[in-house]
Design a protein that fits this description.
Layout (H helix, E strand, L loop, with lengths): L1 H19 L2 H10 L13 H8 L1 H31 L9 H21 L12 H11 L1 H18 L2 H18 L4 H17 L1 H9 L18
C-alpha cells in the first residue's frame, strides 16, 4: 500500500515539474535573447511566443506544451499498469475507482505547474495548450472537439483569448454530453475555471473592446502571470 501511494504522490509531483518546464521562456531566450515575460502580454505561452517570434516558434511551443499534458496523463496510466502487474496495488483497493481521481490530480498539478512554474519564480503561461494535451489523453474525442471549438472561434474573431475562454467553457459541456466519469467532469469544470481566471485581464480588454487580434501587439501586463 505504501509503495503504491508513494508512486501516486510521486507522479503528481512529477506532473507539476513537467508542467513547470518553461518551453516558451527557453525558446524566446535562446532565439532572441530576451525574457518573454517582459514583452507582449508577459505570458510564457504559445500565443505570446507567436507575437514575439512568429508562427514557427509559436507552433513549436504549442506542440511541446500540449505534449507535456499528454505525457503527464500517460505517466498515470503507466503507473497503474506497472503497479498492477507487480501486485503493488493492495487487493482492498479498487484501481478502476482510484485511477480517474489520480488522473485529475495529476492533470491539475501539470496545469498549475505550467502557469506557476517553479523554474520561473512561479510565473508562466495561461495553461491552454497543456490543458488541451491533458484532454487529448483523457478522451481524444473531447480534446478534438474542444480544439475544434477553439479553431472556429479564432477563425471568426481572430482573438486567441476569446477562443481559449470559449474552449474552456465547452470542455465541461462535452464532458457531460459524452458521459465522462465524475472525476473527469470535475476536472473539466475546475480546469476550465482556472484557465478563464488566468485570462482575467484579457476579459477586461474584451469588455473594453481593446483586446488585440492575431497579428496585433499588446502592451506588457506583468499581472497576467502573477
Amino acid at each position: 500500500m505504501a509503495i503504491w501511494l508513494s508512486g501516486c504522490a510521486a507522479i503528481v509531483v512529477i506532473a507539476y515539474l513537467l508542467g513547470s518546464f518553461p518551453t516558451g521562456y527557453i525558446a524566446v531566450k535562446q532565439l532572441k535573447g530576451i525574457d518573454i515575460r517582459e514583452v507582449g502580454s508577459g505570458s510564457t505561452g504559445a500565443t505570446n511566443v507567436l507575437r514575439t517570434l512568429g508562427k514557427g516558434p509559436g507552433a513549436f511551443v504549442l506542440v511541446l506544451d500540449t505534449l507535456k499534458g499528454v505525457l503527464a496523463i500517460a505517466l498515470v496510466y503507466w503507473l497503474f499498469d506497472f503497479t498492477s502487474s507487480q501486485n503493488f496495488i493492495p487487493p482492498t483497493v479498487d484501481a478502476q475507482l482510484w485511477e480517474p481521481w489520480i488522473v485529475i490530480l495529476t492533470g491539475l498539478a501539470a496545469i498549475l505547474g505550467h502557469s506557476k512554474s517553479i523554474f520561473l519564480g512561479f510565473s508562466g503561461g495561461k495553461s491552454v495548450a497543456i490543458s488541451l494535451g491533458i484532454l487529448l489523453a483523457l478522451s481524444w474525442q473531447i480534446g478534438l472537439a474542444t480544439a475544434g471549438v477553439f479553431a472556429i472561434v479564432v477563425a471568426i474573431s481572430r482573438i486567441v483569448s476569446l477562443s481559449s475562454i470559449v474552449g474552456a467553457i465547452a470542455v465541461s459541456i462535452f464532458m457531460v454530453i459524452l458521459h465522462q466519469p465524475l472525476p473527469y467532469i470535475l476536472f473539466g469544470i475546475t480546469g476550465g475555471l482556472y484557465v478563464i481566471l488566468r485570462h482575467r485581464t484579457n476579459i477586461e480588454r474584451l469588455l473594453a473592446g481593446t483586446e488585440p487580434k492575431i497579428g496585433q501587439n499588446v502592451a506588457t501586463e506583468p499581472e497576467q502571470t502573477a
